[in-house]
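Hi all, long-time lurker, first post. I run a small reading group and we've been trying to get comfortable going from sequence to structure in the token notation. Rather than ask abstract questions, I figured I'd post a concrete chain and ask someone more experienced to write out its structure so we can walk through it together at our next meeting. Sequence below, copied exactly:
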Amino acid sequence: MNANTAPKPIIAVVGLSNRPDRPSYDVSAYMQHHGYRIVAVNPMYAGMQILGEYCYANLQDAAAALAGNGQKIGIVDCFRKSADIPPVVDEAIAIGATCVWMQQGIVNEAAAAKAQEAGLVVIMDRCIKIDHAMGMTHGVL
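-- Answer (accepted) --
Happy to help. Here is the structure in token form:
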């Protein structure tokens, strides 16, 4: 299977807001428009719909629900403060994600090192929407 026919990874967006004026919403809507499945993860909105997708309280709940359908989260896209990244990385490792993507302005070197040691691709301080639009896949999109 070549890159053009490989299925697109499912993207869990940690910190996805239900407000259209928020960057997490805009970025997620863009990725959906380009054929990616978005999984909303935000305890404030758990049980609600965001961008037509059920919102989960955490990555474990999201991963368990997808596993029931034979699906798996590939990319964990983080819209959280840098200080809040370590537990997200722990969850990403626990669910077997392949990539942790920290959006622009989000850097946590210790969490990144832990994720890399666990075999995950780590992208920090970059916007998934901008990189996708520029054709920069980092081997994960």
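A couple of things your group might point at:
The longest strand covers residues 73-78.
The mean pLDDT is 95.
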